[in-house]
Amino acid sequence: MSALKTATNLTGHDDIYEGLVRLHEGLSVEQSLRRWAKLVLILANHIGDRTVVEEAIDMALLSAMLPDECRTILDWQQTD
Amino acid sequence: MANVQGIPVYKEVGATPAPTGNTDSARVVIVGAGPVGLAMALDLGRRGHAVTVLNRLDFVAHASKAICFSKRSLDILDRLGVGDPAVEKGVTWNVGKVFWGNDDDPVYQFDALPVKGQKRPGFINIQQYYIEEYLLEGCQRLANIDIRWGHRVDAVNPVDDGVELSVSTLDGDYTLRSEWLIACDGARSTVREKLGLDFEGRVFEDNFLIADVRMKHEMPSERWFWFDPPFNPGRSALMHKQPDDVWRLDFQLGWNVDREAAIRPENVKPFIRAMLGDVEFEQEWYSVYTFQCRRMGRFAHGRTIFAGDSAHLVSPFGARGCNGGLADIDNLGWKLDLVLRGAADETLIETYNDEAIATADENILNSTRSTDFLTPKSAASQALRDAVLELARDHAFARPFVNSGRLSTPVSYPASALSTPDSDEWQAGIGPGSPVLDAPHHDGWLLDAIGDEFVLLARGWKGELPAGVRLVEVQEIAADRLGLTEGGAYLVRPDQYVAARWKSPTATGIEAALIRAKGGSPCLH
Question: What CATH number does residue B489 fall under?
Fold first, then answer.
């Protein structure tokens, strides 16, 4: 069973979204990248469960890909 | 002083005459008299085997090579009888500090010896040629070790039950037939090249300047590492204290640099002045290096076995090069000993291949990760690295992400075929496939008491031991570190790794674990 919750698990989505947008106001892309990274590190530490973080990384990785690419990645991970 | 090849000389030895006649034979030939080859020779020599070492050069080189020797390497040197001079000469250190920018307080620090009460420290810094000298002295005390200086391998031909080498010397060439060949001939291994074997991996696009300088300087005996210091903006730097008032300064240069120009004294001086101010110093050795993480697909090829840099290469961050090589010979020595004495089947060598590859892979993994932190490959990984450093300054939770090199520790083999899986529940202690943790033991140390043969570490156990196993009774802290309760015992391999452990062992259980640890099948007995 997956450790990562993927069903809706929050309220106040618009507030959170706005907060995430505001996080980057007035920043260059480079500064913005750094701020994203900080946020991820803070959240990862809060989650405190490496499996959840790794599953989240996999989900982010796969969600940006076409089905064929996903399969290639998964095959590659299995043979690695 | 430098010789004709332009390699600086630490100690002249002089060429060894070629053997009379144009053929010769040996049971074991080791190619390469660096720290790994000499340690291999000494291990097998101490076990009573006739060993022939071939070294292309006829001197000990004085060059910028390995300087950080880990606790595990010191344990191995102790086992080989040369730990004391190394530790007496070396600079002992345990603490590493990582600085960022112009902040005088470290963003992260670590202790390389988290468990105190062990004979050896986390690390010593010492020039590689001193280690070579001590190993060489150990070898020279044994009549069964024959080191041939200025003997170059020109051809390697696997034959039935052995290897045939063509060797050239100043006064003639000869053929040397050997039952076993151990290639400890470094990153540009001649043996590997002559056999046409693979050496796959990654090259990292970065250059680092090493400036070993002699100067009077006060600093604690610690490893200091900087990200983005004012004296090397946007890059990294590393500082290590060595014996004889020699300091290793290491500056990241970036990829597109003129390497030859970078080591000219007039170009090195500004780095040192920027780092240390207006100090007086003498040049010891300057070089620029790039690095690679590579390994061979297999380390054992019939009767030819690879150990050290010939088999695997890592970046220097983490001190996993020479320490990894010493781990190889530690693993191979006792196995080849048993095979040579006919006490184990030749297939035992296959477990060297498995375990040494596990070690190399862990070293390469750690080294690659450190390198990715040091030299981010994209805007996003640069942002991630900088985010870690910024957070680490104020928040303890971010500090463990800071990676300036994860320093060499012994590698465990949880899946080793030689280990007998636990049949009891253990809440503490050392699992099968991991090295025994040192501890005070009577008036000395546990690892010294284990030595280099099979032992049973027992707490109040009485029973009959199989032949070839020595009993070492442990109490108090040594037993506690092993999680041993009254009546329990550990079977320990000659490289001080745990083979099996029991809460209340039986003689047949010990016998079966011993057979298994020697590569046999316990089911047959």
Answer: 3.40.30.120
